[in-house]
Fold this protein.
Amino acid sequence: MTLVGWLQILVILAAVVAFAVPLGAYMSKVFAGERTILAPVLGPVERGVHRLAGVDPAREQTWLGYTLGMLAFNAGGFLLLYLLLRLQGVLPLNPQGFPGLSPHLAFNTAVSFVTNTNWQSYGGETTMSHLSQMAGLTVQNFLSAATGMALAVALVRAFARSAAPTVGNFFADMIRATLYVLLPLAIVTGLWQVAMGTPQTLDASVSVETLEGGEQTLALGPVASQLAIKQLGTNGGGFFNANSAHPFENPSPLSNALTIWQMLVVSTALVFAFGRLIGDKRQARAILATMGLLLLAGIGLCYWAESAGTPVLAAAGLDPAGGNMEGKEVRFGLAASALFAAVTTGLSDGAVNAMHGSFTPIGGMVPMVLMMLGEILPGGVGSGLYGILVIAVVAVFVAGLMVGRTPEYLGKKIEAKEMKMAVLAILILPTAILGFSALSAVLPVALSGLGNAGPHGLSEIYYAYTSAAGNNGSAFGGLSANAPWWNTTLGLAMLLGRFAYIVPMMAIAGSLVAKTRLAPSAGTFPTHGPLFVGLLAGIILVLGGLQFFPALALGPIAEQVQMLAGKTF
Amino acid sequence: MLSQLRAAATLLGILTLVLGLLYPLAMTAVAGALWPAQAGGSIVTREGRPVGSALIGQSFAQAGHLQPRPSAAGEGYDASASSGTNLAPTSAKLAERLAADGAALKTATGAAILPADAITTSGSGLDPHVSPAYAELQVPRIAQARGLSLEEVRRLIEANTAGRTLGILGEPRVDVLAVNLDLDALAPPVAAPDVSTPTAWAAPPN
């Protein structure tokens, strides 16, 4: 670890917070339905879309109506994407002449992009037509992120409103998230990415004769338009197989800083918007402090582990001071790779600028653990905020148990119904991860996909289902996932991790919105100070630790011990 | 519920048109007008012929060229199939490869300690850079093959070395293709072509 490496990490994170404050203020106006600076341009577009689709933003929905509207919209998105991928061979804008995808790959990919996971069992430049990349994947990059934001706003309204029947209008919220937040940011930052070197063309490729007379085919395409929303929407599905390690997706240290900024900024701004919407900015600062502390711990551990290198590298004569550069790019080095790995999994992004599967065992455990903690640090666009609010409900319940009072959070009493739903939601992640992992660890059809032996092979299984159920999308890439078993079960894990979590979460919203908002009294446990930050961080770590530590002990921790003992597999 | 379905279907249609066609096509038009070179892949030409992309690494095996890191993309630096090895830190395959390449490079250069990037593969398999330390290690070989002085080769490498952006972002790096274009322009090689380090590694099926 170096001083300049840490300086880079802190400067990028500071740039995120500095911009997230005004963006959060803007987003709170967007979701309160107030007039914003972009209204003269986007207002007419928004009203036109409402008219065509028959959406009346003044007609609000109950939690159930909101959830059903969201489910209908996402089911339609899945069907459309599935058809597009199956039929891409006969559709236009397919300059490489790629055939349609197999049923299991199309299922996996369609689920993956609709659930904001963006797990990729395929390599983009060898599989997808331009039409699939643009009208299929790019569209769901926007819509899955807008869906997450709408759901988070609905939950925030449930806290902010007192004794109200409705939580908002899903379609109106989703349209606002797309038009006012995601699209303008994507246009501006996407063009900047082109200026830095990311291609944006309808050509498929250029063939060149290299200096030594070889032939090189450079895959091209409409990369920047997809890259910008891939990061802003915490999607993470790369245009190319190597994702953000590919020099076209991430040409320079500056573009790397921008892509990290892009993936963090909307989720961070949503926390600030939450503070404004409930009328208490201190609550937002406490949540953000918890996220920041745990994320920094993850970054530090990963950076340390990668800087320490491995015995195999040292035995080959490589400079120990250079750390582990297998699977990393020279222009990024150790600090920017460790930062990216922790951020992409503390979020639910899943883009990678270095190959996590070649990290040291502890360095690779960090992204895995950040996903197992629920991807709430600060989490995916929308999903991070509603995820940490569910944990906050559990935290005040635990605090309430200790002093024997009915717990309250943000003026709403937390009672049996909310707790049942919160626990139901929390149990989804371990059920999907450990259940499917246990099956895959014994089934030959699953094991044939592993690319590495020993404890790392087990880690590949854990990582895959953790990434899928957490809707992350990054991978230990040694796993060959494009096979019926993996595509199908990973698709199911993604569906469970997204929608089986959302329904109980929205039930909590429905229950809370109907309750009267109480003024704080002398007996109210304050949820804006360091005590609450410590409690919240503790609950996150205890929940994650209890659920997953035994699994980690058999995977990355066993691998680290074996590695230090000089064992290879 | 029927109005929900109607809204969902109509919105999906409208938004697919706006976000899936209008947005990327408008971005393509604007990008092509403002930054045509970058939008088209930053293609580098020599004597009017395209020889590569300024951003993408390519294979170099001749002794008179600065050599890149080994690559796991296709047969090596295949820019239509980017990939890392995805081998584990405890992989026996990785250990064997590193031991063999490390021994070969130590013998060839006489160095006792090698730069961390020299025999490791990159994440993309298309890394266009090497570290200044790995470039320095190759200076004597290049100078001998081209009949240049060590100083001349060093100066040329330095001219194609970038530092950290704004002093803190990323790492110092040498642009391999740019160095080799300059080397070819300055002096033709005098020694026979020689493969001294392997540049391709088979990636596991992905």
Summary: The first helix of chain A runs from residue 3 to 31. Chain A has a mean pLDDT of 96. Chain A touches chain B through 125 residues (CB under 8 Å).
